[in-house]
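Q: What would this complex look like in 3D?
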Amino acid sequence: MTLRVLLADSIAMGPGKADLLEAIDKTGSISAAGRSMDMSYRRAWMLVDEMNRCFKTPLVTAAKGGAHGGGAQLTETGQQVLARYRAMEAATKQLADAYLGEFSDVLATTPAPPSKAGADLDHAG
Amino acid sequence: MTLRVLLADSIAMGPGKADLLEAIDKTGSISAAGRSMDMSYRRAWMLVDEMNRCFKTPLVTAAKGGAHGGGAQLTETGQQVLARYRAMEAATKQLADAYLGEFSDVLATTPAPPSKAGADLDHAG
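A: Here is my prediction, written as structure tokens for the whole assembly.
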């Protein structure tokens, strides 16, 4: 189950962007966050830029680099959006899992082998 | 948001199979249900067979054809599984929509144009 927050044709928030926000929050750097996700700096930057462009205020701010690099951090909005997305994910997954449990009494333990077409379901049916 | 009930590598229930079950219930025929979904009889039959093989008892039964064709209908299990799946779909969608509403205050009305890389997010960040 994948939840995405769409704005026009842009993905404002989704599983990958949420993971990237967490990595930036942890590493304090877009490039380090990208590396931790086996993602090029450019790819990570593009995702951050897409997120930032979808919200009234940026989710990530980065200081100018210079000799020792700038570093990046989540804004208050970034922290809020990440928390809300994770809450939405957890709640919907918990609900879906609860419903999925209702199928356990009728589901087979393993799928039966395919039937021969027409064997028990006639073509006229 | 797409919810699927998986059993091993088989999809026991999903959006397309749920629609097919409803069409069979409405038309009383696998072939007519398939036609109503622009699906070949063979495709519809394969989906029904996959569903039936994933549950302890079949979701769909079809009488032998003969001159006037057999017809098909949902079993009690088929009715139950369809109802549970639709309930799971509705509940999770309602919950996700409620959470999505929480983003409206921070989302932009439309995405801003792409930034030039490095313009406000330094490569060292």
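A: To summarize the key features: Chain A touches chain B through 66 residues (CB under 8 Å). The longest strand of chain A covers residues 10-13.
Q: Very helpful, thank you.
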